[in-house]
Amino acid sequence: MTSTTRLGLPLIDAAQAQKHVTHNEAINALDQLVQASVLTRTLAAPPASPADGDAYIVASSPTGAWAGKSNDIAAWQDGIWCFYAPRPGWCAWVVDETRSFAWSGSAWVEAFGLLATTLQGVQLFGLGTTATTANPLSAKVNAALFTALGVSEGGTGDLRYTLNKSATSNTVSQLYQDGYSGRAETGLCGDDHFHIKVSADGATWTEAVDIDPSTATATLQQLELTNALSISNGGTGATTAAAARSALGLGDASGLNVGATAGTVASGNDSRITGALSAATAAATYAPLAAPQITGSMKISSTAPGLTLYKSDGGTDAKYWDWFVNTNVLRFRALNDAFSASAFWLTVNRSGNSIVSAVFTVGGLDVATIGASSLTLGSGVSLISGGWVKSASYTVATLPAAGTAGRMVHCSNARMFNGTGTLEGTGSGTGGLVVDNGAAWKIAGTNITVSA
């Protein structure tokens, strides 16, 4: 071996004459390559009057004494040019650029750029400032740019800036400060709602907007418009409360329910609200009805009109009630808070101008059905107009299981006692009333178990 593996330093051979020459050559190489510094990397021809120790990174297409030495480190030592072919990882400080460059194996690149491709696990990173444990990633700049990696570069062309928190009760937000005192904050603050908050002093905060992620409902603390939103676009056509009342015909501050403008809500004769009273497919309208209807009553017109009542202090799933008409049936029901489940408690059926039936339901069981001439209770017991009671009818084989004392039904083939007090023969029962004594069905007024 005549030179070292990494830096190519010449080695002294055994019994070599003039060992000092080889030794000095190696020392010169170390002097040039350790803590390497070059004046520039833009020259392709050697300078006319270099000083001893001057070094350069030879530019492409070199000429003269540098011919064929592109990308080498050229150093003027002892009156001659010495060349050092770089190896991957060699670094050199370029004086005229005040930057450090490293040899990648094919080109000189900025040393930090080469290292950044594998930079991992950094604990603190400060750009233009000093990072701290409280702010391990810190930057002091006047502008910042994030741009998407294009498809031609191997990316998708999209760019998403992701902020993630550990749990629902934590906060992930962007805080805007003035003199390091908070003035505005946006994000998921203590829950999964999207919040916009503001503060005048960095200590007391006011919620401006709260958006529910499950319903997309936005709750606004206050809304002020510089320019009026027209009535046709869902506004009042005004920028103040008084002007809005006037525009809608609701009167002034001294008489908010007194209006004089025809065609408005407060006029009391031809007022009409369209499209807002029902979520049905057809538009809903409100208008006072003329005689013989009740004057001033409300009319909701659509293919499935209805009203929903909200009890603000109701418990969980106990706030909403509604009633609506579907085909020829008026239905009353209770709903849960998410409107995903409901229970009907009254259903009214009509035919023309006549009520056919009204069914009361509790716990999924029809407990009472009112017909044109009957009231049906439970699963078969009816009160019939005319003053008599008709019970449900069974055979011996179809009687419900005994166990509820006091029930009385008709059993059509039960063996009964005839006029002489004799029990009818097997298979010849003429039927009659039977009673559940809690253990078995008995012929009414006796302790005889029912048989066919």
Describe the structure.
- It is a single chain.
- The protein is mainly beta.
- The model is unreliable at 253-289 (pLDDT under 50).
- 6% of the residues lie in helices and 31% in strands.
- It has a 9-stranded antiparallel beta sheet, with no helix packed on it. A 5-stranded antiparallel beta sheet has the order 10-11-12-13-14, with no helix packed on it.
- Strand 18 (320-326) and strand 19 (329-335) form a beta hairpin.
- It contains 3 helices and 29 strands.
How is this structure best summarized?
With 452 residues, the chain is mostly beta strands. The protein has three helices and 29 strands.
Key features of this structure:
452 residues; nine-stranded antiparallel β-sheet; 3 helices; five-stranded antiparallel β-sheet; 29 strands; mainly beta; 6% helix
Show the helix and strand layout.
Layout: H1 19-33, E1 37-38, E2 55-57, E3 73-77, E4 80-84, E5 91-94, E6 99-103, E7 108-110, H2 111-116, E8 125-127, E9 137-139, E10 171-178, E11 181-189, E12 194-199, E13 205-211, E14 218-220, H3 241-247, E15 273-274, E16 285-286, E17 306-310, E18 320-326, E19 329-335, E20 342-351, E21 354-362, E22 365-370, E23 374-377, E24 381-384, E25 388-390, E26 393-394, E27 408-411, E28 432-436, E29 441-443
Parallel strand pairs: 1-5, 8-9, 26-27
Antiparallel strand pairs: 2-3, 3-4, 5-6, 6-7, 10-11, 11-12, 12-13, 13-14, 15-16, 17-18, 18-19, 19-20, 20-21, 21-22, 22-23, 23-24, 24-25, 27-28, 28-29
